[in-house]
Amino acid sequence: MKTNTLVLAAALLRRPDFEGCGLAPYRCPAGYWTIGIGSRFLASGTPVTATTKPITLAEAESLVMQRLQTLNTDLQNMLRVPVTDAQRAALLSWQYNVGTAAVTGPRCSASSMWDPLTLLPTSSGYGIMPRWTAAWSYSRD
């Protein structure tokens, strides 16, 4: 795991047209209470609610980096071929947004996003990433 990959993934997520950054609780497009850079849970593991106190920017960045480290381990176990830092960052930001269950679930593995034999992101897979929106969640179907 390279730190610059996680920093790049966090920067992608922080863009206003992705997760953005809200230091007070807000509802994400999928209807979950979130805080910071799309975090549904605080560092203590407590779920974010409407009454959660605002956090600092440093806390928001820490939350997203901790989550990305965990997701990076999961992603490494899924990939069977090398990917570039930029490809890994894009996959991590997507995985952060839709969740590992969605990435590893039957809908994803049967889709054009992943080649089911190698779990290599296909060149056409990157083009369909925008279809996997923040409002879709494997667990909510």
Automatic annotation (TrEMBL):
<keyword id="KW-0929">Antimicrobial</keyword>
<comment type="similarity">
    <text>Belongs to the glycosyl hydrolase 24 family.</text>
</comment>
<keyword id="KW-0378">Hydrolase</keyword>
<dbReference type="InterPro" id="IPR023346">
    <property type="entry name" value="Lysozyme-like_dom_sf"/>
</dbReference>
<dbReference type="GO" id="GO:0016998">
    <property type="term" value="P:cell wall macromolecule catabolic process"/>
</dbReference>
<keyword id="KW-0326">Glycosidase</keyword>
<dbReference type="InterPro" id="IPR051018">
    <property type="entry name" value="Bacteriophage_GH24"/>
</dbReference>
<dbReference type="GO" id="GO:0003796">
    <property type="term" value="F:lysozyme activity"/>
</dbReference>
<dbReference type="GO" id="GO:0009253">
    <property type="term" value="P:peptidoglycan catabolic process"/>
</dbReference>
<keyword id="KW-1035">Host cytoplasm</keyword>
<dbReference type="GO" id="GO:0031640">
    <property type="term" value="P:killing of cells of another organism"/>
</dbReference>
<dbReference type="Pfam" id="PF00959">
    <property type="entry name" value="Phage_lysozyme"/>
</dbReference>
<dbReference type="InterPro" id="IPR023347">
    <property type="entry name" value="Lysozyme_dom_sf"/>
</dbReference>
<dbReference type="GO" id="GO:0042742">
    <property type="term" value="P:defense response to bacterium"/>
</dbReference>
<keyword id="KW-0081">Bacteriolytic enzyme</keyword>
<dbReference type="InterPro" id="IPR002196">
    <property type="entry name" value="Glyco_hydro_24"/>
</dbReference>
<dbReference type="InterPro" id="IPR033907">
    <property type="entry name" value="Endolysin_autolysin"/>
</dbReference>
<protein>
    <recommendedName>
        <fullName>Lysozyme</fullName>
        <ecNumber>3.2.1.17</ecNumber>
    </recommendedName>
</protein>
